[in-house]
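Researcher: Please generate the 3D structure of the following complex. Treat every line as part of one assembly.
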Amino acid sequence: MGQVIEIPHLYRVEGHGGIQVTLSEDDEVSCQMGIFEGSRFYEALLRGHPYREIPGIVCRVCAICSAAHALCSITALEDALQVEVPESVKRLRDLLNHGEMIESHALHFFMLAVPDYLGLPSVLDMQQQHGEEVKGALRLKKFGNLIQERIGGRAIHPVNMLVGGVGTWPARKVFDEIRAEAEACLRVLETLEPLAASLEHPDFAQSERNFVALLPERNALGLGIGRTIQASGQPALPVSEFRNYVNESVVQHSTAKQSLFSNEPFMVGSLARLIHHRPQLGGEAARVADRLFGPEIPPNPLLNNAAQLVELIHCCEEAIRLCSELSELSPAPEPQTRIELPKEERTGTAAMEVPRGTLFHSYTLNPSGVVVDADIVTPTAQNLAQIEADIRQTVQSWLQQNRRGGEGQLKSDLERLARAYDPCISCSTHLIDLRIAQ
Amino acid sequence: MKRIKPRVGIFGLTGCAGDQLVILNCEDELVDLASRIEIVKFGMASSAEDLEGRLDLAIVEGSVCTQRDLDLLLNVRSKSAALLAIGTCAVWGGIPAMRNELPLELLQKLVYEGKDLDEINLEQAHPVSDFVPVDFAVPGCPIEKEEFLNTLIAILQRTTPERHDYSVCSECRIAENLCLVKTRGIVCCGPISAGGCKARCPSLGVPCYGCRGPVDEPHYDATAQLFSEHGLSKADVIEQIQRYSAPAWVNHHLRREWAEDPERRGRQRIPSSESA
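Model: Done. Output below.
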């Protein structure tokens, strides 16, 4: 008799998804990470809209990654319009991206992932034994939101970032406020390190993998916009040709498509960035990475959680640097760069390292500045094939160990594994290729 | 006597999960809130769930896009004394309802290469109120934290929550902003959009696009008059608000008031060989 092991709904992730494992009579394993978030057909709906409306629409792909989608679409559209914004505007966007990174990682690491390690259903149940840590985590999360609120104009779905610049340049005191809180948050992070260091990361998947990340341009870990991308041990590739190496396919069990990098599953996100760029990392972030990981980082997906902690520190350090630079800018730069419509149809592409990995946006504009083609590939969609490969591996080891701990143990291991990728399901269902025949 | 805590469930239909995230973003209030109510379901924050028995309040975000959404909604409504719809998706259909102008079959062909998926999409994306009675509603994309907390407290205390029956335009004037229509000739939906956001966008020099849905009894004609005085047309406004809460504007208000207007440009979004 075959057997089906099902986790009908994965909780403590963003959106709606589940895992289904099927064992045949001779213990052949097949598995699916199903995504059953309703389709919103984003890319089809972007067609026909003028370029300036796009950031406000695509940020709604996902709340946790709303700044990422807004900024990546803006950069891709500026590429199509051949607009170059001043360095100051780029720094302001970096700061917003760091704000989202801090909010998202604080939420995922402390509130969604750590309860697994402590065997508790939610962060609210951590209150009794880890009250101080919960307080610290909430402060970090609030700091990420403060940056998004002050720089983006709203904590979720930013309104102040526009194609060609910003709506209103923030007052100098805003940068001072953010810098002071960043310094305080670095001290909070010191108090959280013991909890992070005490966590054990069992390696369920036990397999080598391809880690993929953008090459750094704006900070040591490559957070934000980048123009070249690299897989472990392979030559760097230009992101403008991402379609040639990130291949997507439609799978029936999921409203999200799946991606392969040069026909192999791959992993993007905090762990991939840290593995690629650790030698460039400095400051307290580097010291904490040394303490948490030692000299060599094993390719264990659960370590993505710990890598997020390193990035939290890096982002706070970067926020301090950016705020110092931005508050020196006086008077504030002209918020808007002049935009001229393209003379002929033009395609623009951008890639960005955002909380869960590399995000691609690509748009084709007609001479009226209206979108005729749109393509979004999100980090979670890129991770899906690797998550399924890891699930398969985990089930196989569980079978080899004579089903150690029973089905309950397997289910909880699989949930932890999937959650370590910090899957963002709203996002992953909208990675739609709209290259229809022209 | 021990007071029994109200049983509250938080449920997500199709959307960006932004309104559940706003609840998680109540960093200063979350712990206190959790001690005053029994949260029986909050999928984004907790793997625990206790849906046996009645709920005092169901909080629902997202729009009804799939059969699964609809089944969940009907089940939740049947066991809850009251239902609070949060976010523009749940209240008005929101961004998912942008697709209602196009046939589902075409969208599936464009996006999923026409392959059959396990998930069954409804022909249209709907606000929650198309299927079940809604007792309270907090619009917004996403909801405003304070408005949500004040509404929740009012419901739990069995008083009437405050509703924002004034426009974004009124709040913009209170904020003493310069009018974007009058000074810069930009299309701004402030005059006909529901306030409660303290005119967030116009305060940053960015026009309102009606993400909170229509204000009660919008003054379409006065707005059209204002726009025409500054070289803008109704069609410009329709373009701007079509992104959001399409059913709200189209079914409930615009179709009646403006649809027959010859100026209505609408969107030729159905892909054809000419537009591609």
